[in-house]
Specification:
single chain; alpha/beta; seven-stranded parallel sheet; 28 helices; 44% helix; 18% strand; globular
Length: 697
């Protein structure tokens, strides 16, 4: 049984990291446990770790010890090879890989980097390693700065080398190609490859190709004078500020890196002013050359500015620094979340690996894991892009989540709030959110304000609402966002990071209203545990539901399970199991269970049942041996809000489970509520849930 895939290249900076990130995302959506392995890594300074490994382990939260993720450092391989111990190199690599193969359902193997001493024989080592591991290979090469003949020739040579050693090549990727040449690249690869080998072409993405200020500081060994919090700023291009300011300003482009001698106060201050001016593009940073720094009075002036980009002092002269900056190759680091997600988004757009991965993984995983569930959510949301409004547009968590969502191009977003305040927040957070793609609306200044107010008046005048009241309410972001959905100007809304649940859902109850046949709005959480996904309801909305309401919550929750690919086995939770318990509370659960059975005889349901009997197979079988739900429940319905809310939080905190939600059920159009203690991940996941709901589940 094949359990691995090898990513190989024949040069540095080919885009291996993109394949690793994209394939890891794909694999984690298809199977339970995926390992990651690098036979050879670069030599690192004392106390430092390999960046490729750190990025994969950190971003995908893999429970894999760092030391198990590689076999050798490059210098160790060179030494053993010089000592005539090449066989020992392969033996250790195989042993460490096989250990991972035993522990994981699939292992993604990333070949070496081709940088530094020893790169001459690295390609042979990759071929031999793949052959001895007995796993297929994906080859990637960069077409940047190459002629067609050079690029295709190197790919064909790599293919022949692997095939000559009886290594299966299953796909080939031509990376960093001009957009107009993508089809030509695939057609030319197809000329020398068999039909059963997949071919892909990926364009050059400037935001991935250009270095960040952090990389530039490291490469130039610069001293940070200002803006240390914004070193993740991406450079768009760079230019020397040597001419007079009035002429230099005309050369600025978006995300320009300004390189100028440290005594050119006019260029420095002019560039900083241009950065905050709406008439000029943003700059990413300023490099001061010649070991010169501005005079104290200038430094004091800069320090008092409201917005500062990174300002770096370096010892070298302007000419040398400019050449060195041009030679810096950008990398992806574990903390570069936006860059990672842009990389994965690019991979998913141009590389269709799902069918290939399904062929590689020739076994059936049991159940649905959190990674598979999350992967499925992203895929579902991408099927039909929806427009989500976020009323709390000035909240840091909302802005960071919006930036991540836009990076993977999964939804269209409207932020509500003052445009200038949001721009300042984005600058402060160092977020490169493309404001041409994100809609920002100040409700009180919106072109639709009067129309929305009049609509609200017509909808609520029978409740004593007059036009002045409607205008006042429409200034509120929750009312405005909900009206956007009602009028068809947005598909869904996510709020609650800075507002109460009632503030979020009251407008929806007033004029979005519930679906036909539904009288109770309720909620579910998708609880992503280590080895399964359970659904908890209702943990956010209804304090003390009646038996009829509890039954309706159960049916709505079961429908949500079906919509998200979960076959519900329903546990109606109480303090007793079966017929033994007595009392008003357990009787209410028993009555609700009977109502569900009568209305939906197709559902698998057990109740009343205790939590341990619902989820623990041994306890379940001992208490209810004939039940098809006991010990296997994945939809747990709590009898009241007190129990449900405390239980989901206890499970989340004690097990480290990811709680996605709450997702509201029963409304005509999706409005979802966040908790005021929500994280960026909570916002991110809830927006994706809302987008899927908006598809009409």
């Amino acid at each position: 049984m094949n359990k691995g895939l090898y990513i190989a290249t024949l040069e540095s900076h080919s885009g291996k990291s993109m394949l690793s990130l994209g394939l890891m995302r794909t694999l984690l959506g298809k199977t339970v446990k995926v390992g990651y392995f690098r036979p050879i890594i670069n030599d690192m300074p004392e106390g430092k770790r390999d960046n490729h490994i750190d990025t994969i382990l950190s971003y995908f939260d893999l429970s894999l010890p760092y030391e198990d993720a590689y076999a050798f450092k490059r210098s160790e391989v060179i030494q053993k090879r010089n000592e005539g111990k090449s066989g020992e190199i392969i033996d250790v690599i195989i042993r460490k890989y096989k250990k991972l193969e035993e522990e994981y359902d699939f292992v993604l193997v990333e070949g070496s980097d081709f940088s530094g001493e020893g790169s001459v024989f690295e390609f042979d080592v990759n071929v031999i390693t793949a052959r001895n591991l007995g796993i297929p290979v994906v080859i990637i090469a960069s077409g940047q700065y190459k002629s067609w003949e050079e690029h295709l020739g190197s790919l064909q040579m790599a293919y022949n080398q692997f095939v000559d050693k009886d290594v299966d090549v299953i796909a080939m990727v031509s990376n960093k190609i001009q957009v107009e040449n993508l089809d030509a690249a695939k057609e030319n690869m197809r000329k020398f490859l068999p039909d059963d080998i997949d071919v892909f072409a990926i364009p050059l993405i400037e935001t991935l190709n250009n270095p960040t200020l952090k990389e530039i500081v490291q490469a130039l060994e610069g001293k940070i004078l200002f803006g240390e919090d914004f070193l993740d700023n991406q450079t768009g291009n760079f230019g020397v500020g040597a001419m007079q300011l009035r002429n230099y300003l005309t050369t600025l482009k978006n995300e320009s890196l300004v390189i100028t001698p440290g005594d050119r106060a006019d260029i420095i201050l002019g560039a900083l002013q241009a950065n905050i001016s709406s008439n000029y593009p943003r700059i990413s940073g300023i490099i001061l050359t010649g070991g010169l720094t501005p005079e104290p009075s200038i430094l004091k002036l800069i320090e008092g500015l409201s917005e500062i980009v990174p300002i770096i002092s370096v010892e070298d002269g302007t000419f040398s620094v400019t050449n060195r900056v041009g030679a810096i190759k950008s990398n992806i680091y574990a903390d570069s979340i936006q860059k990672i997600e842009t990389t994965i988004s690019t991979f998913e757009r141009y590389v269709s690996f799902d069918p290939l991965v399904e062929r590689l993984i020739n076994f059936e995983p049991h159940g649905i894991t959190p990674r598979m569930f999350q992967y499925g959510l992203v895929k579902r949301a991408q099927q039909s892009k929806k427009h989500i409004v976020l009323p709390e547009g000035t909240d840091d968590r909302i802005l960071i989540a919006a930036s991540r969502l836009m990076a993977i191009d999964i939804v269209d977003i409207t932020l509500l709030g003052d445009v200038e305040v949001i721009k300042q927040k984005l600058m402060k957070l160092g977020l490169n959110l493309d404001l041409e793609k994100v809609n920002i609306i100040n409700p009180a200044k919106s072109e639709y304000f009067q129309e929305y107010a009049e609509t609200l008046y017509e909808l609520r005048k029978h409740k004593g609402v007059n036009l002045d009241m409607a205008r006042d309410w429409m200034s509120d972001v929750s009312y405005y966002g909900t009206m956007m959905i009602y009028k068809g100007h947005a598909d869904g809304m996510v709020s609650g990071a800075a507002h109460t649940t009632q503030h979020t859902i009251r407008p929806a109850l007033q004029f979005i209203k519930t679906k036909p046949g539904v009288s109770v709005v309720s909620s579910v959480f998708f609880m992503c545990l280590e080895d399964r996904v359970s659904v908890f309801g209702d943990c956010a909305i209804n304090p003390n539901p009646t038996a009829e309401e509890l039954a309706e919550i159960t049916i709505s929750s079961a429908e949500s399970c079906f919509a998200f690919g979960i076959d519900p086995k329903i546990a109606m939770l109480s303090y007793s199991s079966g017929t033994s318990g007595k009392g008003a509370d357990v009787d209410r659960v028993r009555q609700a269970t009977e109502i569900v059975k009568n209305k939906r005889p197709d559902l698998k349901i057990e109740g009343p049942i205790q939590y341990d009997a619902a989820v623990d197979i041994s306890v379940g079988k001992s208490k209810l041996p004939d039940s098809e739900v006991a010990g296997q429940a994945n939809l747990l319905i709590f009898p009241d809000l007190n129990t449900g809310n405390n239980t989901y939080k206890a499970v989340q905190r004690e097990t480290g489970a990811l709680a996605i939600g709450p997702m509201l059920q029963g409304l005509n159009k999706p409005v979802n509520d966040l908790s005021r203690g929500c994280t960026v991940d909570d916002v991110f996941n809830t927006v994706i849930l809302t987008a899927i709901q908006a598809q009409g589940i």
